[in-house]
Amino acid sequence: MTFLENWQAHLVPSGTFQAQDLWQLLIVIVLFAISSKTLGSKANTVLIPRSTPTLWLKRNLCFLALWAAILVASGICFVTQTEAPVFRFFSYLGGIWLIIGLLTSFIPSRFWSKSVAAVCYFLTTMLSLSLVDDSIETLQELHFTIGTNSISAWGILSGILAFAFTLWISLAMAKVIETQIKRVPQLSASLQVLIAKIIRIVFILVATAIALSSMGIDLSALTVLGGAIGLGVGFGLQKVVSNFISGILLLVDNSIKPGDVIEIDGTYGWINNLRARYASVITRDGTEHLIPNEDLITQRVINWTFTNNLVRMKVPIGVSYDADPHQCIALVIAAAQSVERVLSDPTPVCHVLGFGDSSIDLELRFWITDPTNGVANVKSKVLLNIWDTFKANNIEIPYPQRDLHIRSSDVAMPSTEQSNSPQR
In the chain, what is the greatest distance between 2 CA atoms, to the nearest angstrom? Predict the structure, then answer.
């Protein structure tokens, strides 16, 4: 007896399923509902940073409970000498799935672990169904017609298998290509993101086309339907399509890329990631803003690091008219140069902008090269140094002053005594 024949004998002793075995399938469905209701929510709360056998068992408590219940039901039928091919089928298949899950859990990467396990699950299921007599013919008889295309249950299963397998290979290849693209120093960050997105989309489309072909669907017959769907999507999802196209334009013209410090509509922060629909901008307080790509195209955006990371800061300062402006300028420049983040080249400068109502108006201008670390904090340090320097040199920062002149009036005022006298 060959391996497949032995495996077939263990799966279904009679070689096929009968209509009277339907009650066993109903019991399996009920057990699945109970196990998922009781253990499914608890298993979903288990976070798996990386794949290990222990964490896999905790994550799949629902499957383990269902498989144990089917084993008990199969054992009861064996003791009572009741033929239970459905119980036996799922008990052996569940055991194979348990072995596959434990073996693939040794793969550290969650992506590769789940991908390999999913492909093995589908392969073993299809192999098990194919060993049951007349199973493929039965699934092929269950079909429905869409236009001139006839789609069967077997075609759907094979299409799902083909889609899962090709999608797994496609995403794996895309991930490898993305890793190699990131190692090319000649490509900018935005161009790397654009190439990676295009490769991923192309691979997903290829996997979808292969799956549809496996189902027996003629792809040429979908051209009219695809055009109608595309037209409907264009009208119904204008904003989504606009954001998607805007994202591609942003990546192509390299105007905004990950790591840039931007300011848009009062939001100041650095770009953490560029997605197909939006850009993720993290502000200094840790808040992550999701700005639609269309806004980055249509609105005015200040990119602090578009050409380089050099940013000039301006700090207005007022000093008393009793102070020497030449001395104040020298002290202000020295105070700015003592801050670590202020660049010495270009050197800070200070100019007299005018003579105000209450003070001599000065303006300090200095450069920084790390705007991602914030601009308000470096301004604060510079102003504190200026304050300490002015205090040490007895230089006054004046309050707003107004001179009030009271002039005598030529208009005769009524006597106070007459106004206070009682009326008669």
Answer: 137
The three-point CA angle 47-48-50 to 5° equals: 155
Q: Which two tokens stand for residue 295?
A: 């806004």
Distance CA 395, CA 412 (A): 48
Tell me the two tokens of residue 160.
């799902």
Classified by CATH at the fold level, domain 311-392 comes out as Alpha-Beta Plaits (3.30.70)
d(CA 284, CA 78): 67
Helix (H) or strand (E) holding 163: helix 153-182
- The domain spans of the chain are 1-133, 148-236, 256-303, 311-392
Label residues 132-150 b or e (16+ Cβ within 10 Å = b): beebbebbeeeeeeeeebe
Q: Is the dihedral of CA 286, 288, 289, 293 positive or negative?
A: positive
C-beta of residue 157 within 8 angstroms of C-beta of residue 165 = no
For residue 166, which of 196, 204, 198, 199 has the smallest C-alpha distance?
204
Q: Distances from the Cα of 211 to the Cαs of 135, 166, 169, 221, 325, in angstroms?
A: 21, 8, 13, 15, 79
pLDDT, tens digit (0-9, with 9 covering 90-100), for 178-195: 777 777 776 667 667 777
How far is it, in rounded angstroms, from Cα 393 to Cα 119?
A: 77
The pLDDT of residue 365 is 93
From the list 269, 271, 278, 270, the residue with the least C-alpha distance to 297 is: 278
- 256-303 CATH fold: SH3 type barrels. (2.30.30)
pLDDT tens track for 257-279: 888 888 888 788 888 888 778 88
**pTM more than 0.85:** no
For 282, the enclosing helix (H) or strand (E) is strand 278-283
pLDDT of residue 110: 73
3-class SS of residue 253: helix
Q: Which of 10, 3, 18, 8 shows the shortest CA–CA distance to 74? A: 10
Regions in the chain scoring below 50 on pLDDT: 1, 3-4, 7-8, 15, 46, 424
Burial class (CB within 10 angstroms; exposed 0-12, middle 13-18, buried 19+) of 26: exposed
